[in-house]
Amino acid sequence: MGLLSRPAMPYTNVMNIASPIRTTGHTVCPHDCPSACALNVDLEADGRIGRVRGSPDNTYTAGVICAKVARYAERLYHPGRLLTPKRRKGAKGEGVWQEISWDDALDEIAEAFVKAEAAHGSEAVWPYFYAGTMGQVQRDSIERLRHAKRYSGFFGSICTNMAWTGYVMGTGALRGPDPREMAKADCVVIWGTNAVATQVNVMTHAMKARKERGAKIVVIDVYDNATMKQADLGLIVRPGTDAALACAVMHVVFRDGYADRDYMARYADDPAGLEAHLKTRTPEWAAAITGLSVEEIEAFARLIGTTNKTFFRLGYGFARQRNGAVGMHAALSVATVLGSWQYEGGGAFHNNGDIFRLNKAELMGTSFVDEDIRMLDQSQIGRVLTGDAEALRHRGPVTALLIQNTNPVNVAPEQRLVKKGFLRDDLFVAVHEQFMTETAEVADIVLPATMFVEHDDLYRGGGHSHILLGPKIVEPPATVRTNLFVIEELAKRLGVADRPGFGLTEQAHIEHMLTASGWPGYDTLKQERWFDCQPEFSTAHYLDGFGHADGKFRFRPDWQNGKAPNKPPVRLGNLGPVASLPEFPDQVDLIEVADAEHPFRLTTSPARNFLNSTFSETPTSREKEGRPEVMVNPADATRLAITDGDVVRLGNRRGSLRIHARITDAVKPGVLVAEGLWPNKAHLDGEGINVLTGGDAPAPHGGAAFHDNKVWLEKAAG
How large is the average pLDDT for residues 16-42? Predict the structure, then answer.
């Protein structure tokens, strides 16, 4: 490229002219959300985007998107957007930068990687990424460089593992009923997701069922949030006690004759064993664990027991608790005891990942994989960077990082370890980003990245059934580059650009992925905008048998050896206390149970106007969210002499932080909720909520238990 070092140019209209100019662009929301919404984007005469809308033509998006994406122009044209490559001049984190050319920046990154490999072997370099974009090409091309260079492997554990594992342990496949069937249900159970804030399209279809069919909406969560306020029956459970509720509900279903025994005889592995196991799992037993009343549990069981068309929409809250795999499996089992799968508008859905069957071998360079290369856990980046021998798999240090699509200094567990690791003098860090995130602030080289309307990519919606094309609809600023560009340029400098899969454009990668997977090619997708991949009813509802070899749903999952979508490599084995997982659905307190020293359970739930750490830079999102706060029940506040707006301190063995208290009965006594992943610097002491979260691997396949923290609470001194 050879761009000369020069002062940052203002991001003007001239820099962003689309050709030809149209009135509407069609693309896809790229963010880490199961909805992957189809978008219509207003294109102004000057080449800038205007309002972003949900496509009314897409039957899942149905014209509805979240407010934060609707105002995406605020983010695209933000004055703080990164526009030029930068080299650190002062100490790490000091904030002193020098603008440099793209060529110089890429040369320095490649040189640092070569030095790291020469000193400690290829595993000293760790390409680190995640879901800042869900586009297949821009997100996953980094894997091709990793495998071609034999850099340390990446076990992406931070978001999905407990939920996916629990679901597939039961069904044998990561798929389920068409999510659009929620609109045909007579009861929609939204369990473990604040859909109003995080998956607005779930509410679109649930509310349609209510309006057109008189359907009841049940919401199960840990506090009275925006989704709970839409419920006909809202059940607020203590964090990590979902399995107890599910077991008590199944107890009532068996006891009162609601169980579909004929269905279970055909489709389940051991209904008799499950019924015997549940004899002591009474509503009284569950009430003491969950904090619900016996009457609430009985009412829920009676409602779903008398409603064949009950659709269980199971969310990612299960992936945030150490016993989340067990909780997901237990909730899923309720649908099988009822036989809900048989009915249109019935069954249980979590994610449709298995239906898309995208062949990404060329994109990700899987033919280059060396099985001896170590696999490092994304969630344990703090331990990896501070030299923890187990986290490093008893091999050498990581001394160089390339980071795309994620902000670990803010989002990763054990934040103090993470920050300490990033501040190592012997660690080289290159960050490719859209804004100067807190991870970029401690980098050595920062590269400016395109946003989704400025590049081509392919998307699939885990929360629905579509493969979608997200074409470039405006030109990016002249000085920013795509993720694919960075990978390709580094491959040239590192001597692997001649390997298969390199040297292709985004459109070529999309074409190859689609045709290798048996789908029509790029041109067809461009014309149609999306492919609907939803299987036929009998497959989606498992009426041809569940995904296990015998076609049976597993009430007795094989936690040691059973199917799971994201297992760690065989050489690592299972993770966490697998031996403690139960034979049948049950409450297991692998969570951080509150104790005398830490009497509160803290969850760090999503905010409506942020998406992880994304959107926290936009003025409207920050204004609407206000400031970092922790919700405290009035009874707890009175006991601790805390009033609304007071500064309090939360802490556990990992650290402590100060934060403002919001006194509200939205949370139950003994439970604290801190909404939103605010930047660390937005907190009173410059340390964010993930100071309090742990990086230990939950059973059976790891993850990050962000909503599973025992803490103490006190009014801050002074």
Answer: 82
